[in-house]
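User: Design a sequence. Structure:
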């Protein structure tokens, strides 16, 4: 699989799953831009990746703001002409049972996870359509498929990403733009670092592979969907969860 000559934009690319995706796409030959609201962390990640002899750069933006995304992406489009691969990975959680959930926590999760995905697609898609080639990979979650008590906002945002993915797959298939989702199970990152060990032990009993995932597990799935070889795969949800959930 080679992504040589391709330009890839990865949101939330500073750490965790996003960082692994940036590294994997760069290893496959793409020029990768890590977009994150944490500018310092994004630059640190990129310097590490560049020191490995790969091509990467960082831009700072808040995906929840359409203005911030447009301002960050405009110079990229000017420089490269198009973004060939967009990975919508930036995401947050603000957990709580619905009756205790603050409106601000509902809104924050929707703004980043769902609206952020929409904002990034909106600015990047015209360049893909123009070139008649594009790969959009949206990071959903197992929680969007099966639900989880205490995560109504997160589950709703990740389920909505699946509907968005399938719709755009239908709208842009004839322009050779594929749109797919990757739905991770439980992956070892900052997002899951705070889970109590009893919760992790309980989770482990539900994972046939007997371990949490690592960010690279997700990056490999994204790499395939971003490749030339995946050109006939669109509108799909690729579950990567150690067998925890087996979608029909
Ligand atoms: P993470 O370690 O928290 O990393 C997320 C990155 O996204 C951080 O660098 C974060 O910056 C950035 N980000 C958050 N909000 C942003 C915004 N508004 N604009 C730009 N960047 C923003 O999370 P992760 O575990 O790698 O998760 C990555 C994706 O996978 C998320 O969409 C998540 O929902 C999904 N996922 C994760 C798991 C899991 O088990 N870890 C499972 C299923 C799905 P800050 O540090 O400044 O917030």
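Assistant: Done.
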């Amino acid at each position: 699989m080679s992504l040589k000559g391709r330009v890839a934009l990865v949101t939330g690319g500073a750490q965790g799953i996003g960082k692994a995706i940036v590294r994997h796409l760069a290893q496959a030959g793409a020029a990768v831009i890590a977009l994150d609201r944490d500018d310092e962390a994004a630059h640190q990640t990129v310097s590490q990746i560049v020191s490995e002899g790969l091509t990467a750069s960082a831009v700072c933006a808040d995906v929840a703001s359409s203005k911030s995304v447009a301002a960050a992406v405009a110079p990229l489009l000017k420089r490269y002409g198009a973004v060939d691969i967009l990975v919508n990975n930036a995401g947050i959680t603000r957990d709580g049972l619905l009756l205790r959930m603050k409106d601000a926590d509902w809104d924050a999760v929707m703004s980043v996870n769902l609206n952020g995905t929409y904002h990034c697609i909106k600015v990047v898609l015209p360049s893909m359509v123009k070139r008649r080639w594009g790969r959009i990979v949206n990071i959903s979650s197992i929680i969007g498929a099966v639900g989880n008590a205490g995560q109504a906002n997160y589950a709703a945002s990740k389920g909505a990403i699946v509907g968005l993915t399938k719709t755009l797959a239908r709208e842009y298939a004839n322009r050779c733009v594929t749109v797919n989702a990757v739905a991770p199970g439980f992956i070892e990152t900052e997002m899951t670092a705070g889970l109590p060990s009893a919760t992790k032990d309980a989770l482990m009993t539900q994972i046939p592979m007997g371990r949490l995932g690592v960010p690279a597990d997700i990056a490999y799935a994204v790499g395939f969907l971003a490749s030339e070889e995946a050109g006939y795969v669109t509108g799909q949800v690729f579950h990567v969860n150690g067998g925890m959930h087996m979608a029909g």
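Residues 7-239 form a domain with the Rossmann fold fold (CATH 3.40.50.720). The chain has nine helices and seven strands.
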